[in-house]
Structure formats: C-alpha cells, structure tokens
Amino acid sequence: MKLSRKGKAYCLMAGTLVCFVLQMLIMKTPNGGSILLQLGGKASMVNITGVIQAIMALICIILVLIDARIGLIIARVILLISVVSMVLAVIRSGGGLTPLPGAVTVLMSLLSCEIIARQFKQMEMDSITDLVTKLLNRRGLIKELEAQQADSKHFHMMFLHVNNLKSINDNLGYEYGDKALAIIADRISKVVSKGSIVSKLDGTEYAIAIPENDDIKLIADEIMNEVNKKIVLDSDGVPANFYLRGFAGVATYPEDTNSILKLLRYADIAMYHASKNNKERIVYFNKSLEEELLRRAQVEGYIQESLKNDYFFLVYQPQFRAEDKGLRGFETLIRMKLPDGTNISPGEFIPIAEKTDLIYKIDEYVLRRALTEFKNAILTSGDKLLLSVNISAKDISSPDFAGKLARILEETGFPAEHLEIEITEYSLYDSLETTVANIERIRGMGAKLALDDFGTGYTSLAQLLHLPFDLLKVDKSLVDNVETSEVSRDFVKLVIYMGHIMNSEVISEGVESESQLKLLREQNCDFIQGYVWSRPLALQDALDMCR
Ligand code: C2E
Ligand code: MG
Ligand code: MG
Questions:
Q1: What is the pTM of this model?
Q2: CA spacing 20 to 30 A to 54: which of 10, 47, 243, 261?
Q3: What are phi and psi of 212, to 5 degrees?
C-alpha cells in the first residue's frame, strides 16, 4: 500500500486501537457478562459479537496490507487474544458451542493474514532482485545504500559496463548472454570484500558498493581483470570462448556527495567518461566531469535551437595558389551566434553534434545553404572556382550520404564539378566499405574530394593509394612548427612529396606568417589557406572576391 512512513505508523496505531476497543466490548467478564451485554440486551449481543469479530478480522487484513511485517505481528496478537478470549468463553459457558463460528472466522482471517504477508514479502523480494543474476537490482541497491547511509558507513560506488555481450547474444542466443552475465556477477562477488554490495543495473551494467577502507584502486582493477578473463560457454557440448571488455566509473560517499541518488549519477558520469576514453578503463569522479557533461547538454540544446531558429550562418575562407596568390576557391565554415550575442565555436559544437544524430542535420544544412549562396557566383565567375564543404566522419560513412548529396545538388542546381567534399582521416577508421562506396559515388557525380587535417591521424600509405583524393590538407599543427622544428619541416616536405606522387594536390592550412609561407613555397606546396592571406570572410565579401 502506498503510504508515507508516518502515515503507515498512524494507520497501524489507529487499527490496533480500534481492534482493542472492539475486543474489550465483546470480551466476557469473569461473571459471564460483557460491556456490550451491559449496554444492550442479551439477544442483540449474540448477533453483534459475530459482526464485531468480522470487523476486527477485516481490520487485521488491512493492517497486513498496509505493512506486511508489522501489520502481521499486530494481526497475530489481536487475533490470538480474540481466540484466547473465545476459548475462555467456551470453558466458562460449560462447553457451549455458541462462540465456535466466531473462532473459525478469527482463525480463517489469521490464515489469510499469513498468506497475504508471505505473498507481499515475495513480491518485495522480486521487486529488488535481478532475475538473471539473482543480485540486487537498482531498487534493492538504493534500499541497501540508504541503510548504509543511516549507519554512517562510508563507501565507494563503482559502476561497471560490460561490452561485447552482443556477440554472445548474436552467436548463441540470449540465454547464453544471460549465463555470461551471471558468470560475471559471480566473479565480481568473489573478489570484493564481505561488506560490499554487488548489484546488477539495467542491461549490462553492474553497481558495486565497496567499503571505504578497502583499497578501491586494487579492487577495481581486480574486478576489471575478472571481467576481461575468458568466458567459456557450452553450446550443445561444444565449448565456445568469449572475451568481454569492461569500463567503469567510481564515486565516493560522502566525499563526492552525501546524496545516494547523486552518488549513483556521479558514478554513472565517471563511467560515461571512461567509455569515451580509450586510455583509462576506470575513471574516478571529480566535479569537472560533471561540468563537462552539463556543458555538453547545454551545447546540444543550443544546436537544436540553432537548427530550429537559424542561429547558424556560414563564413568562407579563401584558398590561394601558393605561387601567385591566385584564388582557388573557398572552404565553408559554420558559425553559431545565439540571440544574446554569444558565439559558440564549431571546434566545440561539431564534436558534440558528432556524438548525436544532430551532425547529419548540420552537414545537410551547410551543404544546402552554401550551395545556394554560392551558386550564382560560381556559375558567373570565369575561373574554375571550388567550394569546399566539411562533412563529418559519421555522415560520410552513412549509407545515405551520396543519395542526400545528389538530391541537394539537384535541388540547388549547383554544378558538382565546383564542389569539393572535405573529410578527415577518422572517416577511414570505421565502416570503411560504406565510406569508400560514398567516395566513389561522389566522384562519379563529378565532385572533388579533399582529405582534411592530414598528418594528425594514422592513415596508411596503402589506404591513401586506394583512395583517390584530389587534395591533401596539411594540418595546422604541422604548419605551426615548420619554422622551429626540422622534423616538422621534413614531415611537411614528405607529405607534399607523397601527395604529388599520388597525383593529389596539397594545401597547407592555418598558415599565419610570411616565413611559414616562404618555407611552404620552397617545398612546392600548391595552395595556401590561412590568416596570412585571409581570414574566413562573410558571404558578401567572399562573393565580391569571386568577381
Ligand atoms: P577545419 O575544417 O580543419 O577548418 C580549419 C579551421 O582552422 C577553421 O576553424 C578555420 O577558421 C581555422 N583557421 C584557418 N586559418 C587559420 C589560421 O591561419 N590560424 C588559425 N589559428 N586558425 C585558422 P573553425 O572554423 O573554428 O573550424 C574548426 C573545425 O570545425 C573545422 O576544422 C572543422 O573540422 C569543423 N567545422 C567547421 N565548419 C564545419 C562544417 O560546416 N561542417 C562540419 N562537419 N565541420 C565543420
Ligand atoms: Mg576543413
Ligand atoms: Mg583542417
């Protein structure tokens, strides 16, 4: 029954009191009478005693429904007193059977109370237990933690996520995935100390409370090792080996917070950061992690608002021929300006958009808007100017990208030969097949392809030979060091050389000084993009430059 603690206590007290008063009314005094008998006549007494007993039995059942544990104790006492008083009445009346039906009612209701209470206890157990691992579930964990909190116990909270379970589910079926989860639960329970609480949250997550005095770093590492150990599952007599991987977050009570719900959230935040972090499998909570997450949520909101209310606009950074500063074209760069005048840089919001599906909308918005804004200038300019658009790794590796681009080209009437799509090396890490298919279709439409931020990733030469890029863009971080570091200078030289033997042209981006420019020209860099010759321009300035 849904009542507050106080409400329950009042109800239990009131019920008990009513029952006792009723019992007093019908209880036989030693001289054979009763209070009720003295109030009413003898005949009415016999009828009313039965009714009152039935009411008491009903109240007892209600008490058990209110609180299975305490209600049952009270019901047992009340009904026992009732039975005893009836037995006494039978003895006193010299064995008359008049009280017998009342006694049966009372015994039946006692039995009902016992059954209801047992049922309730089972339901309560089920509601706090994870059926697969038989560990506590989230509700059970919170209950236990609240008890620890009441006992002023300090502890670490570890959230653990187990990866790769999908491969077991896919290969052997869900019942084997469940078996693996139970094996992990067992292993964790074996390495933690006696005062720990191991629980299983939704999906493939576990939450483990570890006493503060235990060496958390040591235990967390041990838990991780247990998760990473081989799991052997027997499928129709054939043993199959699986390797799961885990990452985890840890927060500490009460150092990080003295609220249980916040503690769980903090452990979850730390775990989230561990999932994004390739280096650390276990992340320990600190306040900056929460701030980062809040900022991310805020920026995500800004992106959504910007898409809806058009707070985005585009700027265009010119690209020039290194030898004579002739105009090659423009790189489209997105900007976000909120109504209060705040500018959010794409360096911040693009990576956040890339973690959600918002990046698809942004890329589509930029393509449609840039091609529309530049179409006339491109068509009327005598030079063969190019307009570059950045496309995120997630977008270029999605199966719909080429189709979407074809549609936008058709809708805007922009000539594909004047379009260049810039992708980064990260596009080549995941779903390479889809990316390559998209690249081929893009080139089939007549558009060009540039590899952005070259020199910051791990693209192999073999990959580059297979992928026909029209342009390699030497990353600013390499350009930054060409004056001071011989290694960077040699590296840039090598990149330019490599680009040329693969029939690609090479542009250096982020060129800021005359001396960088001079060195890049000496190394036969074909094009220059950077503040040294021009910052990104507003649309009108860029269109004027085309003329
Ligand atoms: P990126 O594509 O490598 O763009 C070059 C960045 O370097 C731009 O920063 C540009 O303003 C900046 N830059 C150019 N020359 C110089 C220079 O001489 N000195 C310095 N300090 N910076 C220079 P921006 O516009 O802040 O963009 C940052 C990144 O955000 C871009 O790097 C790109 O990865 C992403 N981005 C920008 N616009 C878009 C877009 O429309 N779509 C997508 N998917 N990503 C975009
Ligand atoms: Mg770019
Ligand atoms: Mg770049």
A1: 0.68
A2: 10
A3: -60, -30
